[in-house]
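User: Show me a protein chain along with its predicted structure.
Assistant: Here is one chain, sequence first, then structure tokens.
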Amino acid sequence: MTFVTGTLVLAGTPIGDVADAPPRLAAELEGADIVAAEDTRRLRRLTQALGVHTRGRVVSYFEGNEAARTPELVEALAGGARVLLVTDAGMPSVSDPGYRLVAAAVEKDIKVTAVPGPSAVLTALALSGLPVDRFCFEGFLPRKAGERLGRLREVAGERRTLVYFEAPHRLDDTLTAMAEVFGPDRRAAVCRELTKTYEEVRRGGLGELAAWAAEGVRGEITVVVEGAPPAGPAELDAAELVRRVQVREEAGERRKEAIAAVAAEAGLPKREVFDAVVAAKNAARPASADGKGLS
């Protein structure tokens, strides 16, 4: 006996201007058996703006009920329903609800497809003026200062362009932390209210952007940061080599792996980095009364 399962449709929604809605979105909204929305009120405003009516059942699907509601939606999919998943803006699963449902559907061999739509990540990257050939998306940084610094230190040597989401009331602290870890002159772009009436892209060094953000910033924020510059042997002195090893150790790497990684970044033999670390460790030891280092 053959069982026919339904289809999970991940639909991108406008990140600002409703005119950016993909053409298929209206048809999917009208034809879905179930529409799972991050915010049902925003969904209502979207359907009104598009001039469409949802004929299927509308349910909420947000961070607070995602785990509990996923089995219910998977059961509906297994029974043949077409379930449309929409978030407040952009693509489901990208720092928004959706991953759990997709993973559960895939596990049950249920078809998953997408209605491609606007993406704050790609839009900000394209507008930043920074290299776009290689990039990585880091999502939201931790709220606690110590955890935020730790996360940034993990990618201090990352050569690819970095993309982050951030809340406006935390932007000042985030840019200040980035300037501390990456350096105040590292180029970046703060993209605010993309595709909306008050869209703004502010470009500059991280130190400069942190000073600007201290005055207060509003709106939806995406931050794009230039990757770490390539470092040759002549550019890194012993102190910098030791600092980079320490950053990696603080992020959880074992010293041996940290030394190997820093050596690879700098294009140096591992022995040279190892010797710099040992010398720094010996220099930090307190001296005995006769002037000799303690063993």
